[in-house]
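chain below, 205 aa
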Amino acid sequence: MFYPLLKPFIESSHRKTVKRGEIIYHEGDTPESLYLIEDGLVGLFHISENGKETFLRVFGKDDMFGHRSYFAETDYHATTIALSKTTLVIISKKQCQEICQHHPELMATMVKMLATNLGHAELRLAGLQDKTASSRIIESLLFLKLKYPEHIWTRKEIAEFSGTTFETVVRVMTKLDEEKLIEKEGRNFNILDTDKLLLKSKEEV
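prediction:
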């Protein structure tokens, strides 16, 4: 989303490749750069005081992350981790200042896009409060598989994204497999009927 928009201005930016499981920044770190994903997947996690991890969001190819804390000038509120081998474009403070000063129309477009994304994220979090675990899992399966079809999502990642437990995800996915709505293939799964699965999620509310 953001990479094509900024590409003409960041050709000289530093690029970094991180492997799956590598932390990009920790909750509490001070922002020094903006991050764009040239290729790969990055997960955003919040770690509570008791050590529990909550999977907040997924960023994919062309997405920007780390921007909320960067522009607010506050420490990161969550931790980012590579969910696959990922190539990052790192925009320095100097580059960001130059873009803000010389290309205000570009920054205005970016702010509008960021605000829209934030609204979608808030609606998703609000919806989690009113839905059953089964409904949240089904919606998460649809979202993760349709948006990132090449990635093999673990049951733990699905549980964290849907705000449920590993055991509940296993139980719900087994039931959906028996109903021929999904097909489990080892750690992976395929959606067999998107419309019926979406209808199922509404029935589970």
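The CA atoms of residues 35 and 162 lie 25 Å apart. The chain has eight helices and ten strands.
thats it, cya
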